[in-house]
Amino acid sequence: MKLTLFFSLLLLTFTAQANGQRWQGEAATGALLLVDGQGQIQPATLLDTDARITVSGPVAKVTLTQRFHNPSQQFREGRYLFPLPENAAVDGMVLTIGDRRIVGRIDRKAEAEKTYRQARASGKKASLVSQQRPNLFTTAVANIAPGETVQVELHYQQTLNVDGHRFQLRLPLTLTPRFTPPTEAPHTLDSLLRNTVAAPGGTADAGTASVHIDLDAGARLATLGSPSHAIHYQRHGRRYTITPKAGAIAMDRDLLLNWELEDTGEPLVTRFHEEIDGEHYALLMVVPPKTGQVTALPRETLFIIDSSGSMGGAPMRQAKASLHLALQRLKPGDRFNITDFDSQHTLLFETPVTVSDNSRQQAQDFVDGLQASGGTHMLPALSATLSQPASDGYLRQVIFITDGAVGNESGIFRALHQQLGEARLFTVGIGSAPNSHFMTRAAQFGRGSFTYINDQNQVQQGMDTLFRRLESPLMRNLQVQLPDGIVAERWPQKLPDLYAGEPLLVAMKLSAPPQQITVSGYSTQHWQQPVTLPTNNNHPGTASLWARRKIADLMDRITLGAAETDIAPLITDVALRHQLVSRYTSFIAVEETVSRPANEPLLHDTVRNQAPHGTQHTAAWPGTATPAPLLWRLAGVLLMVCLLLWLRQRRLNHGAA
C-alpha cells in the first residue's frame, strides 16, 4: 500500500509540474460560455461579427462590429478575446444598445479599467477594449440585460502585405493557442484562460462573420481571388466590391484576399498624406523594378522547423513540404543545417555542411521523420542555431518555419537582437491562423521578411517566392532624402535591404509638406526614384499608422532592456494623441442610465474562439498542452484506492485486536 501511495503522490507532483506549462488566454475552440460565481456552466449565448473594409492602395480601413446577445433571464457580463492584424491601429469604438449609440473615448488603461469596474458595479451599460498583445485584444461588455443585444463597433487602420505587384489583405477571425514555458512569467490572460479551459468540451457555435470589402487598388488589376474562401465580386471601373459567396462565414480561419496589379513596366509608386492640427504625416511605398542582380556570394542557409504539438495535422504537413522544397532550391557549394524543435531541439549536423547529394539526402530523411508533439520551446532552439560558427565569405540566411504559437516573444526578440549579427532572418508562417505579430516583428528584427502559407496548395508558390527573394538581393544602403529644411521622424529608422519585388514602406511625420521625396540605394549601380507627395488630398489613417509604428518601436526598446518606467509615458502620450489602444491605453464607453437593479446579480460570460481550421486541437485542450487533466484523474483514482486499502487494513487491525 505504501508503494501505491508513493506512486500516487509522484503522479500528483508530475501533474502539478505539467500544469506549470501554461497556455495563455487564447482558447482553442469556439463557444460563448456563461459561468456564474460558483463556476456552473450555463447555455451559450451567440456572437455575430460584421467586417466592413475599405482598401485604398496599401492601406485598409476596417469597421469590425460584434454583437452580444443574452438569451438568459439574468444580467450578464461578456468577455471575448479577439485577434487583429499585427500592424492594426485601433482608433475608434462605439457601444450601441437599442437605438442608443455611445461613442468610446481613449483613456489611460488604469483609469479606463477603473471607470469600467465602477460602471459595472453600479449597474450601468459599459464596454472596455484593451490590448493584450500588439495583435490581440479583449472586449468586455457589462450588464447585458435579459434578452438584450449589445453591439460593440471597432475602427482600425492597417497596411497590407505587399510582394512586388501582389497585395494581400488578411482579416483574422481566430487564433492559434500560445505555449509559454514554465520558466516564463504568467500573462495577464491567465485568469481568462482558467475560465475557458475549465469548461467542458463541445461544439458550441461562436457565431459567424459577414464581410464586405470595397477595393480601390490605385491601378488596374491583373488577378483577384481568395485562397481561404469562395468569393463573389463586382467591378465598378477600377473599384471592386467583394463578399464571400456563402454569405456569413465560420470563424475558424482567417479570411485572405489577394490581388495583383497589371505590370506596366514602370515602378509602382504609392504615397499618402494626412494633416492633423497642422502636423503632416506621409506614408510612402516604392516598388523597385522586378529584375534584380543575383548575388555572387555563396549562401549559408540555416533552417529552423517547429514540430511542436500545435503544428499537428495540416500545419506539420505544410511545414515538411516547405522544407523539402527549400532543400531542393539549395545550390552546390552553398552550406546549410537544420534545427528541429518541440520540447527539445535537435541539430541535423553539428555545424553547417556543404550542399551535396549525400547531405541533401540526409536532410530529406531527417525531415520525413519529423512528427508534431510536445511543447514549443523555441528560444533554446533559436539560440543553438544562431550560435553555430559562421562560415567566412558566406551570406547567412535563417529560415524559420513555424506557426509562432509562443507566449514568450520578448525573450525571443532579445535573443535575436543579441545573437543574429549580420545574418538575415526570414520567417515562414504555417497554418490557418499563425501568430503573425511574432513572425513579422522577428523578421523585422532580422532585416528579413515574413511569408505566409495558408494551406498545402500554397507551399510551392510561397517557397518559390521566398527563394527568388533570397537569391536576388537587389539593393542596400537605402536612403529617403527630403528637401533642405524639412525634418522627418520616420519608421523604420534603419531601412532594410531591398530584394527583388519587395516594396519600401516608410511612415513619416514631417515638419512641413515637401513637394518631392527621393528614394535611393545601391546595387551594381546607383538607383533613385523621385516621388511627388499629394498634399492637396487628405488620406485618413496615415497618421494613425505612423503612430502605431512609433509605438511598436518604443515597445521594442522595452524588449531590448530599456526601463519600462521611462518608455511607458512616451507610448501613452502618442496613444492619447492619436486615439489608439495600446498596452497603456484603452477605449471606454459608459451609458449613464442604470440598467441593472442593485439587487440583481451579474453573471459572467467567456467567449472561446474556434480552433484554427486544419489543426488537431479538440475540446478545451490544445494539442501542445500537457496531459495534466488525465494525470489528475489517474492520481485521484490511485488516491481513492489507497484510501480504501487503508480503511480495510484498519478494520482488519481493529478486528485482530
Automatic annotation (TrEMBL):
Q: Which InterPro entries match?
A: CHP03788, VIT, VWF_A, vWFA_dom_sf
* Domain (VIT): residue spans on this chain: 30-158
Domain (VWFA): residue spans on this chain = 300-470
Q: Where is the signal peptide?
A: 1-18
Q: Which keywords are on file for this protein?
A: Monooxygenase, Oxidoreductase, Signal
For the keyword Signal, the answer is: yes
Q: Which SUPFAM superfamilies match?
A: vWA-like
Molecular function terms, GO-annotated:
monooxygenase activity
PANTHER family for the chain:
VON WILLEBRAND FACTOR A DOMAIN-CONTAINING PROTEIN 5A (PTHR45737:SF6)
Q: Which NCBIfam families match?
A: marine_srt_targ (TIGR03788)
Query: What is the recorded name of this protein?
Result: Monooxygenase
Native source organism of the sequence: Alcanivorax hongdengensis
Q: What is the lineage of its organism?
A: Bacteria, Pseudomonadati, Pseudomonadota, Gammaproteobacteria, Oceanospirillales
